[in-house]
Amino acid sequence: MHTPHMDDSVCCGCHLTPFCIGSEKLRANPEFDSLPVKRRFVVKKNERLIAPNSHFQYLFAIEKGSIKTVQSEADGGELIRGFYFSGEVLGYEAIYSGRYHFTAIALTETHVCMLDYHDFLYYLQSNPELQQHILYLISLQLNVGSYLVSTKADRKLACFLLDLSSRLHRAQMHPEFQLPMSRQDIGNYLRLTAETVSRTFTRLQQNNIISINNKKIGLLKIDVLRQIAEGLTSVE
Amino acid sequence: MHTPHMDDSVCCGCHLTPFCIGSEKLRANPEFDSLPVKRRFVVKKNERLIAPNSHFQYLFAIEKGSIKTVQSEADGGELIRGFYFSGEVLGYEAIYSGRYHFTAIALTETHVCMLDYHDFLYYLQSNPELQQHILYLISLQLNVGSYLVSTKADRKLACFLLDLSSRLHRAQMHPEFQLPMSRQDIGNYLRLTAETVSRTFTRLQQNNIISINNKKIGLLKIDVLRQIAEGLTSVE
DNA sequence: CGCTGGATTGAGGCCGATCAACTTCAGTGG
DNA sequence: CCACTGAAGTTGATCGGCCTCAATCCAGCG
To answer: Cβ(A34)–Cβ(A97) under 8 Å?
Structure first.
């Protein structure tokens, strides 16, 4: 991990905020402890947050920014396991094995909170609401990226764009947004080549379903995009 | 759900057994409560355990047998989301939405325990060890089926067979086993056609990497199979 | 201004889907 | 026990979509 510098800005929150310092609830009931946040810091673009195969110790809450987790394959290829955006929590996959079987890299400047997992477990004991909430969050995680199994490229990309449009802005659906990752990253995630991603974007644009200008995406016909995402239509 | 009949046989356990009736630990410390098991019953082959889109209320622990979860798609196709075998627990995916977005069907006669989720949460409060254990189990679940994103058919199937060989017998790796599901089910899970599954099996057999006789599988060269699973080699 | 890496576009080949024929298997009833 | 039947599995021929490789375009930046 590159030497991160501490973050003294105002926290804009994450999925664990209800249990964290300064939440409404905790201010009203100072007898409750807050989540044991180890420290907050900033990871710069293209810097590494987690080294591959390193020992699992922390969950990372992303306050602001975007992260990719990358698994290098035996054949030399790189597989992107997931993208994580503002508000989301990263690291659950590593609990079972005690190791992060991936590298985590910031796609944009990213503000992160570290939560020591053992402290977290200890805090969990005294907080049944968090017990329920954490099961909810991991359950959500189990359903993320289920569209990866689609076979058609246009379907995968339609799902991907719809997914991004709601996750990039803290679950608020936005029809316009900036792609934080490259075509290659998208391809590595969806198991397509960058060329196929590019071609499919072009076709979607030619049909006026999306607009695309480098990394700037606009969803023009969301209903059509949803139909493609469900496999009911194709482009061209 | 078809009218299930109660199971009065001896329990052979599941991933939650350490917290359940009759475990070593609980017999030694009778002051601890046991997990609130609602009831045990048997689901016959091809019968339904969970109706599609039904309200989430229970986690299901599979004591013995095999289950598939099926999601019907808008285009009429059927996607198999997962297979569950002896010892495994089914239902985490439904926590976040409060609904099972799938059908669960028994592939073979299956013995199941129902756990009411609200009772489970209540029990969880008083049991930090279970808190830790359940996070471990769901973390494991997050990593199941990660090989689905492979692009090549032989690679998917190699991963699938290795996965099955260890999961079918309570995490004990067995080089010989019986496939509980059809070629079509395998295809729907791996996003291949039944024809491709059949052809790939045949090629693996011709190279003496596996033996296959209808549903009976033997893994002859596990090291080679692992290489294929990692994308280092192909068949033929 | 040229450099560099990402993005786009084009031509050709391969793998898995599709469609169809055939074989094998499991279950049923005579 | 065998004959029948429908489902599951295998095998073959063809087609199409994505990959591959290569050239070009473009944006950001010194």
So the answer is: no
Distance from residue A161's CA to nucleotide C10's C1', rounded to whole Å: 26
Higher pLDDT, A18 or A54: A54
| pLDDT, tens only, A64-118 | 999 999 998 888 788 999 999 999 999 999 999 999 999 999 999 999 999 999 9
B151 to chain A: closest CA residue: A191
* Residue type at B170 in one-letter notation: R
pLDDT tens digits for range B70-114: 998 888 788 999 999 999 999 999 999 999 999 999 999 999 999
Given this structure, which CATH class describes domain A6-143?
A: mainly beta
pTM for the model = 0.93
SS3 of B66, please?
strand
For the CA atoms of chain A, what is the radius of gyration? Answer: 19
C-alpha A176/C-alpha A163 separation (Å) is 13
Ranges assigned E (strand) in B91-146: 103-106, 110-116
Q: Are A152 and A204 in contact (CB under 8 A)?
A: no
Domain boundaries of chain A, sorted by first residue: 6-143, 147-229
The whole-number Å distance from B85's CA to D18's C1' is: 35
| CATH topology assigned to domain A147-229 | Arc Repressor Mutant, subunit A (1.10.10)
